[in-house]
Amino acid sequence: MNSLNIQPEVGFDSKAFRRALGNFATGVTIMTAQNAQGEKVGVTANSFNSVSLDPALILWSIGKRSSSYAVFAEATHFAVNILSADQIDLSNKFARSKDDKYANVEFDLGAGNAPVLKECSAVFECERYDILEGGDHWIILGRVVNFQDNGRSPLLYHQGAYSSVLPHPSLNIKAASPAEIFPGRLYDNMYYLLTQAVRAYTNDYQPKQLASGFRTSEARMLLVLESKTATCKDDLLREVAMPLREVEQAAEILVRKGLLVDTGHSYELTEQGDQSAQMLYEIGENHQQDVFGHYSAEDKALFQKMLKELIGV
């Protein structure tokens, strides 16, 4: 590691520089490592970036004053845990100076015994490749030896605040006229109309729901349980209308996150689970208003009545 003595330019406004950098939206990661003595460290960082595909290299940086640096420098491996949109609390926990950041945090041990956090958007397990000096930070390069792509919507950071991913409005394709979409008798086919309506409705709704950090199966579980229409697991299976395996996987994840309690006979929402369900309801109601806001209350009530009768409610 070569040490460079770089002096700041006279009159350079570091605070303004930081604010300008904040215009570059980034993902949020927690970097984790463990040395040979079993000391575990973890720091929240948004300095992660890719370097090379062949070999597979990534980098991130850590402040020279960080008490965690020594373990990262000693450890043979580290993990890049890219946080999902619902992991703000985890990000805040690892951003603070605490004696035991891993208290009540579930993780596995990956390559080189680096802690791998649960339910992240993605994880990269890295062998320490090199450490370079970069001003008041150390730049740590890693060679990726294993990775997970969990497909969860990521947590973003922009101008000092957390954010989430939504498709850009310009990507919405202008809808064609009914005559162009439904030629001839197809326009009168109720099955075709209903399936196309569901597709059109979910095209804009699903990205909003995924931005919450919950997959569709998890979100549906939370909403059904909050509605209290399912008093047992058999009722739940009917209400969520998903295969048993998906229900069990979603429940396992939600229990692990502290959102559900498995009583054996049924699932019950915790206080945190109820809050998550309320957030999802708000997303759904806002989208519903966007889609049906120009219809009269009578039209909407009639449409709801017809749908409920179709599904036998």
UniProtKB/TrEMBL annotation:
The keyword Chaperone does not apply. InterPro entries: Flavin_Rdtase-like_dom (IPR002563), NADH-dep_flavin_reductase (IPR050268), Split_barrel_FMN-bd (IPR012349), WH-like_DNA-bd_sf (IPR036388), WH_DNA-bd_sf (IPR036390). Residues 21-164 form the Flavin reductase like domain. SUPFAM superfamilies: FMN-binding split barrel, Winged helix' DNA-binding domain. GO terms for molecular function: FMN binding; riboflavin reductase (NADPH) activity. Pfam families: Flavin_Reduct (PF01613). Keywords: Oxidoreductase. PANTHER family: FLAVIN REDUCTASE, FLAVIN-DEPENDENT MONOOXYGENASE, REDUCTASE SUBUNIT HSAB. Belongs to the non-flavoprotein flavin reductase family. NCBIfam families: HphnlacHdxRed. This is Flavin reductase. It comes from Acinetobacter tianfuensis.
